[in-house]
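During the reporting period, our protein records have gained a structure token line. One record among many is quoted in full directly below:
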Amino acid sequence: MAEKSPGKKSIASRGIPSSESLYFPAHNSSEIRRFQDNSEAPTRNLWNLEEVVNFVFPRKYQEKYHEIALKFLQLLSKKTHLSGSDISAFVSENKASKATFYNRVLPRLRRVGILKVERETLVPVEGKRKYRPMKVTLSKTFGNYLMKIGDSWLAIVDDARSRD
């Protein structure tokens, strides 16, 4: 058995925190549309926004987060970028909890790479505080991340099969 070094703390394994995980239903589940044929070749159909959001906020387990994220991304895909005041208006118009949106939904969408949040520091005008307006845009990072994983796995499988 491996000994622990006295100064190094270890984290008790309780699984992956939900804030750092994605939802992958079984590949043959009725929850997702078919994405490959019987010979494992990818199909040409694409998943829509709601289906993609389901991997980040599964409707089955996080219905409210799913709903808010979907509405927000639909708005963002129409406008391409949103300011802090646009986001504030979205939250109040949709009667979403500010805490839920700003503490759960927005950070998660940013962390997985669906959104890019940029802040600009403005120099204060005399008598006013400095402030950092927010600009939110869609990001390709989520897709690039998953494509890298997928392409790497396909290369591993192809390499293994070529050795047969």
Summary: The helical segments are 49-56, 63-79, 84-93, 98-111, 141-162. The chain has a mean pLDDT of 86.
